[in-house]
Automatic annotation (TrEMBL):
InterPro entries, per the entry: HGSNAT_cat
Full protein name: Heparan-alpha-glucosaminide N-acetyltransferase catalytic domain-containing protein
Source organism of the structure: Desulfofundulus kuznetsovii (strain DSM 6115 / VKM B-1805 / 17)
TM stretches of this protein: 21-43, 59-82, 89-106, 177-198, 227-248
Record keyword Cytoplasm present: no
Lineage of the species this protein comes from: Bacteria, Bacillati, Bacillota, Clostridia, Eubacteriales
Length: 249
């Protein structure tokens, strides 16, 4: 009987899915990206087309925060796999500043001060300083940073120079804001998970069929191209929404 899938095809898929990658990390990153795109779609509908969608609380709000939390945890875990943390961190940080400039020019008043990319880039740069800590220490330190963030969030600062840390004036506004306090605590928890579950930097599920399932492949594609998709998804969403509402007028 002729096999339905040749050995060379299986080998090709396994090579594409697993070499230098831990596939489940890419998959969860893809899930986070899908949640984020969903949140931004609903945000755009509310902000630019005035649909009655409250994105500041409830399911929509937690979809956005859930996506960001998952991104940050995965970035912390992935810090144990990367051999070029400084270079990648600087790259992500620079893209964060570019988005800050472009958004400020294209949408005046829609400031993005220390948004998710600026936070992730900074965290990647800081990660090597904590790489030698054991998992319990990373977990405790992460919890302390989270608690410190809850405290600093109640303070009113005379200026915004320390906005990156979480200390801002009462009138501070940023569309996307992830200061080191408390969010670096989540990143450290991700590092603790990476040290605990990926000491050998190998997949926990090397024989799972999920990477070969159509849904799994789609999520893996999103996860492996997350930065590129993040950079282009908002203009694409806005263009599609413009064309849609233009067509239904």
């Amino acid at each position: 009987m002729k096999p339905s899938v040749s050995a060379s095809t299986v080998k090709k898929h396994i090579k594409a899915a697993s070499i230098n990658r831990v596939w489940e990390i890419d998959l969860f990153r893809g899930v986070a990206l899908l949640l984020m795109v969903t949140f931004h779609l609903l945000y755009d509908l509310a902000e630019f087309y005035h649909l009655p969608l409250d994105y500041q609380k409830g399911l929509i709000y937690y979809t956005g925060k859930g996506a960001a939390t998952l991104f940050i945890l995965i970035a912390g875990i992935s810090s144990f796999f990367s051999t070029s943390k400084l270079r990648r961190g600087i790259k992500v940080l620079l893209w964060g500043f570019i988005i800050y400039i472009v958004t400020g020019v294209a949408l005046p008043g829609s400031n993005i001060i220390f948004g998710i990319l600026q936070f992730l880039g900074t965290s990647m740069i800081l990660a090597p300083l904590f790489m030698g800590l054991p998992s319990p220490a990373l977990t405790v330190l992460g919890a302390l940073i989270l608690l410190a963030g809850r405290y600093t969030g109640t303070l009113t600062w005379p200026h915004n120079w320390l906005a990156w840390l979480g200390l801002v004036r009462e009138d501070f506004f940023s569309v996307d804001y992830y200061p080191l306090l408390p969010w670096f605590g989540v990143f450290l928890w991700g590092m603790a998970l990476g040290r605990t579950f990926y000491p050998s930097k190998r997949s926990l599920f090397p024989h799972s069929p999920l990477p070969f399932h159509p849904l799994g492949r789609s999520l893996l594609f999103l996860g492996r191209h997350s930065l590129t998709i993040y950079l282009v998804h908002q203009p694409v969403i806005l263009l599609l929404l413009y064309l849609f509402f233009l067509a239904v007028k």
